[in-house]
Design brief:
The complex is a heterodimer. The radius of gyration of chain A is 21 Å and the shape is globular. Chain A is built from nine helices and 21 strands. Chain A is α/β, with parallel strands linked by helices. Chain A has one domain. In chain A, strands 3, 4, 6, 7, 9, 10, 12, 14, 16, 18 and 20 form an eleven-stranded mixed sheet that branches. A ten-stranded mixed sheet of chain A has the order 2-1-5-8-11-13-15-17-19-21. Chain B is built from seven helices and twelve strands. Chain B has a single domain, classed as P-loop containing nucleotide triphosphate hydrolases (Rossmann fold, 3-Layer(aba) Sandwich), CATH 3.40.50.300. The N and C termini of chain B lie far apart (about 40 Å). A six-stranded mixed sheet of chain B has the order 6-9-10-3-11-12, sandwiched between helices. Chain B is globular, with a radius of gyration of 19 Å. The chains are: A alpha/beta, B alpha/beta. The complex binds adenosine-5'-diphosphate (ADP) and magnesium ion (MG).
Chain lengths: ~425, ~280
């Protein structure tokens, strides 16, 4: 892959000049940035040399298929629904919302029809190129993904559901997601990421950006159940404006190995963010997550609860970072990491990092890990539950504490269902 | 010969962490009988109940527990339960995140042979849809509500997490609720009376009396006489220091109440059971 190849690809995609410039800058950054070394603190547990960068191709999504809409069915109880992938297979929206300016569409289409709305966010992207080689790669070659815009003051009660999907033929993907919730808007969006496993390793390098305008109330739920053949390096970032509130729930059920950066910037005074994370690891799957809460304004509140269940030889590393600069007075931030290890070969590591420069700050962290409680296990078995059933029940009970923090109803049910599905494999 | 309608414990010795706690316990319970097991704190009553149910910490070094021609001591705890053995725990576990109703639905389904295949495997090899091998939800809820009402448990308990924030009395009632649903053939009730006020005690005793019939045998563990005012035992055993030192009729419980356990200590020489000697 070189500059000429990228230029030809952008020609085929008929991309606007401003986007071409962004991509080429990013590509330069990609070329001059070395792979992260094992000595670098954030990459100590993931050997970047094993990531199959050779999979990167500029295949992109089939242009011709973009407008084929099969608005066959949509799930009940949602305000809008999108099936996003190389071909667009389904999209639906309550008409009242589309009239008032709600947008939910795939990236390729959005670039053509809503470039003006997206441009400021893409140009001023918080997905910093300098972060690492993979962030630069994503910024250079991203394609696919989806765009959600909730207009100012629009309060949407029912959830918005997105299913993003990649077929077996796509061994590389770099989807970009952009969620813009304008001032005083309110939305719950749930995305399920899926991919069809293939014969050999796939490489995904997605980017997610969530923008919560002043006083917006936003819930973003990601259920990641991509195939167990995927190497994933993803950069996901949220910006939370003054008095806005974000609840960000990530459920990691798939992928072979992941390196995920989740960054939340509390940018306006009184901003609030909660993050709930859960990863289920089995087989030889591994997860390396870095979550950062950056308290960039006075009186912001943050609460992170990250949990994990590891079976077999599953291993996880979780790095929770809280940054409170001098001017962020009155910050209140909590970080909790809890892991259940279901086999003697499972491993988990927890690394809290608190960088606090301000006075007048409340900041706490707690971490725990342990095996299944033998007395609880005996109790369930004494009621007739076979050992595997009893263990699974206890693991689901452990997970329930996290699921209970999601919006009640449809979202919780979906999370429960997906978790149980993975456990029953 | 152990018959289908007897539960026969013979010369049971149990150690916990290398220390022998039960030093040869024998007793036989027939269906339809209630046996009270009394003894001071630390005499080994809970050790007996845990060993009979199969807690891995309690290692059986000698003896048998025959039931349906089977030595249950060789079975894993879940199989003992499915065979019809039940233990109401002295200290029931708390499990946050598990609702009472989903737990009970699994337990009932297991006991009725729905959750488990004939060979004891938990489930078929392939993926399994949630709920496919559970008792149908409507049928289960009807039964659950009826049994909860009988124990004066508010139906809001169904959606609460198991024993999480329950009072002592609520926990014990939920143990009896489980007994009612699982319909055991032999039940061990380990100090189900402790921590209950008099009203709760009556409710629990009524529950036990209702469930006990010709098809169930009960080992009622207590160290107070109080419970026996409401549940009439056929046989009373006194356990001291890991041995049954006396066995008698209901009058034995009154004797105990009058003079305490001191008089029942086995004599220093042979450890043989002795008669109470007046102080
Ligand atoms: N889980 C255990 N760990 C260590 N010691 C135990 C345990 N269970 C019972 N024991 C010991 O066994 C003895 C009998 O205890 P237990 O069976 O609980 O008596 P009871 O129920 O009659 O009060 C005591 O000395 C107690 O300390
Ligand atoms: Mg006891």
């Amino acid at each position: 892959m070189d500059r000429h190849e990228i230029e030809a690809w952008m020609d085929r995609r008929r991309e606007p000049e401003w986007l071409r410039r962004l991509r080429l800058e990013a590509f330069e950054a990609y070329e001059r940035t070395p792979l992260p070394a094992l000595q670098e603190e954030e990459w100590r547990r993931t050997d970047a040399r094993r990531i199959p960068l050779g999979r990167v191709v500029l295949n992109g999504f089939r242009d011709g298929a973009l407008h084929e809409e099969h608005t066959s069915g949509h799930p009940a109880g949602v305000a809008a629904y999108l099936e996003s992938g190389p071909r667009r297979t389904g999209a639906w929206m309550e008409t009242a919302y589309s009239k008032r300016g709600l947008i939910l569409t795939d990236m390729e289409l959005a670039l053509r029809e809503h470039a003006d709305l997206m441009r400021p966010h893409l140009e001023g992207s918080a997905l910093s190129l300098e972060r690492d080689k993979f962030a630069a790669l994503h910024a250079a070659v991203w394609h696919g993904g989806w765009f959600l815009r909730v207009p100012e003051g629009e309060r949407i009660e029912q959830p918005i559901w997105v299913r993003s999907w990649l077929p077996r033929s796509h061994r590389f993907a770099g989807p970009r997601t952009l969620i813009v919730a304008e001032r005083r808007s309110r939305v719950i969006v749930i995305e399920e990421r899926e991919s069809e496993p293939g014969a050999d390793a796939a490489f995904h390098c997605p980017g997610v950006e969530i923008v919560c305008g002043e006083s917006a109330e936003v819930v973003v739920v990601t259920i990641d159940r991509r195939g167990d053949d995927v190497w994933d390096v993803s950069h996901e970032r949220a910006r939370v404006g003054a008095s806005a509130s974000l609840t960000w729930i990530v459920l990691h059920l798939g992928t072979l190995a992941r390196k995920t950066f989740l960054e939340t910037s509390l940018e306006g005074a009184g901003a609030e963010a909660r993050m709930v994370g859960l990863s289920l690891l089995d087989g030889v799957r591994q997860s390396d997550v870095v979550s950062t809460f950056h308290h960039g304004a006075p009186r912001t509140r943050g609460d992170i609860v990250f949990g994990g269940v590891s079976r077999d030889r599953g291993r996880s590393v979780y790095r929770g970072r809280i940054v409170v600069p001098r001017h962020a007075r009155g910050t209140d931030s909590h970080l909790t990491h809890r892991v259940l290890l279901m086999s003697p070969d499972a491993r988990a590591e927890s690394i809290p990092i608190l960088e606090i420069e301000a006075n007048d700050v409340k900041c706490k962290h707690a971490a725990s890990q342990g095996a299944i409680d033998p007395d609880q296990l005996f109790y369930l078995m004494s009621r007739g539950l076979p050992r595997v059933e009893a263990e699974r029940t206890l693991a689901l009970a452990f997970v329930e504490d996290l699921i209970g923090r999601a919006p009640a109803g449809w979202v919780q049910e979906r999370l429960r269902e997906r978790v149980a599905e993975r456990f029953n494999r | 010969m152990a018959m289908d309608n007897t539960f026969e414990i013979r010369d049971l010795r149990v150690s916990v962490e290398g220390k022998e706690i039960l030093k040869g316990v024998s007793l036989t319970i027939r269906k339809g009988e209630i046996h009270a097991l009394m003894g001071p704190n630390g005499s080994g009553k809970s050790t007996l109940s845990m060993a009979l149910m199969g807690h891995p910490l309690y290692s059986v070094t000698n003896g048998t527990a025959l039931y349906k021609g089977l030595d249950v001591l060789g079975l894993p705890p879940d199989e003992r339960a499915r065979q019809g053995l039940f233990l109401a725990f002295q200290y029931p576990q708390t499990i946050p995140g598990l609702t009472v109703s989903s737990f009970l639905r699994m337990a009932v389904s297991a006991r009725r042979g729905l959750l488990v295949r004939a060979n004891g495997d938990a489930r078929p090899d392939g993926p399994r849809r949630p709920g496919q091998d559970l008792l149908p939800v409507k049928e289960f809820l009807r039964e659950l509500k009826e049994k909860m009402a009988a124990l004066k448990l508010d139906s809001s308990f169904m959606s609460r997490h198991l024993n999480d924030g329950f009072s002592g009395g609520e926990k014990k009632r939920v143990e009896i609720l489980q007994m009612a649903l699982l319909n055991p053939e032999f039940a061990i009730l380990d100090e189900t009376d402790s921590g209950l006020d008099i009203d709760a005690l009556k409710v629990v005793a009524e529950g036990v009396n209702r469930l006990t019939g010709p098809n169930m045998g009960v080992l009622l563990i207590t160290h107070y006489q109080r419970l026996l005012d409401y549940i009439k035992p056929h046989v009373v055993h006194v356990l001291m220091d890991g041995r049954i030192v006396r066995t008698g009729g209901p009058e034995l419980a009154r004797e105990l109440e009058a003079q305490g356990y001191e008089g029942f200590r086995p004599s220093a020489d042979g450890g043989e059971a002795t008669h109470a000697t007046p102080a």
